Amino acid sequence: MNIKAHSKKQTTIDIIYLIIGAWVFAFMLSTSMLSVNQIAGNILGITFISIRLLLIGLTFIDFLHRRQSMKRILILVLFTALVLIEYLVADNWLLFELFFIFIYWADRLNYIKVIKIFMYTTGFSIVLIVLLYYCGFLIKYDYFTNRMGRARVTLGFHHPNSLSECLMVVLLCAFLLYWKKKKRVGIAIVTILVTVWIAIFPNTLTVVLTIPIVYFIYALLKLITSKTITKKQRRRILILVGLFVIGIICGLYYVVNSGMFDNSVLRQFESLYIRIRLSRLGLERYGITLFGTVYESATEIAVYINKTASEYFTIDSVYFLLPIRYGLISSIVFLYCYYKSITFCVKKDNLKLLSVLIAVLVMSVVDPFVTNYIMSFIFICSKAYKQSHGLKDKVMCDEAIGVISESR
After folding, report:
1. What residue numbers bound the domain in which 272 lies?
2. In 10 A of CB 270, how many CB atoms?
3. Residue 145: phi, psi to the nearest 5?
4. Do residues 98 and 322 touch, judged by C-beta distance below 8 A?
5. Which of 26, 35, 110, 130 to pair with 119, CA 20 to 30 A apart?
6. Number of structural domains found in the chain
């Protein structure tokens, strides 16, 4: 009986892994020029809907067959209600895409498997998109240029930044998986080469900065902690992260409202100035609401390719994008889940993933890539159990629960 029950549970978990892989693959295709085609775009839309329905259906069945605490039931009910309100009011699935698996399934998923699914699926998708691009199946255009007027490489993606961010995910996953004594040199060489290529061809500065910041924070954490993080160090890390987020939010909103970036000297920082100016424009146009608003973003695709917008407008800073686009309530939930992810990493002494979470938090000042589904692995993995001896412990725990349930 126990073997059958465990087999069913494992089958369900395997389906969750497949859903994650399919979701990553669909997301990757949606970032390519393939989605500009109406038929392909409709197919991708149906795929996303099917994935969500399948995940919701599996969760509902599992929820009915597992004993749930009142706290867990309350969290799921409130989260589901918020996701529905967010979709109906602001037409988005941000919280569902980033945190649904994190909240309900992550503690039963394998840390190593999740990272491998994200890394290999993303890597395979990049290769596929590039092949389609060179075979002539994807639209080619050169609207993206750097400060020197040279075209930025897209290789079939919507935007050079999309290509860079997908490569960054592969590099971060490789860091989490393979940064060990015997493999450090190889990982370091590959990381440096890819980062330099990103700097020269797609020319995405935020990604180029994110990678070294991750390694710097990791080295710093290794320096100030022993093999395990003590209780005092845990408190200090969590307090510092909390103060950093509060300081960043207060500082950014002061800068935007004070107009200090209108100073002619500060305007020399063109990229940062444009981000600040667009954030202020977003606040003026939409303001901040409880549940968000339909955000009329217009990137180069909308302006030059689809001809659906007359001006370029997008908000890059997550600290403005969240309250404007997704609403104040969703922003609070996002920051709370992010903080919980950091807490899990601190408790598990997972310095590598903690370094990634902190680095992404820093770069969210100027880049919204953390709001993409492909970045959800940093949340899922913070809660997932490790492969070494964790798998056995998990199986034994599941079997023990089954025995107790049957005896009752």
Report:
1. 2-407
2. 9
3. -135, 155
4. no
5. 35
6. 1
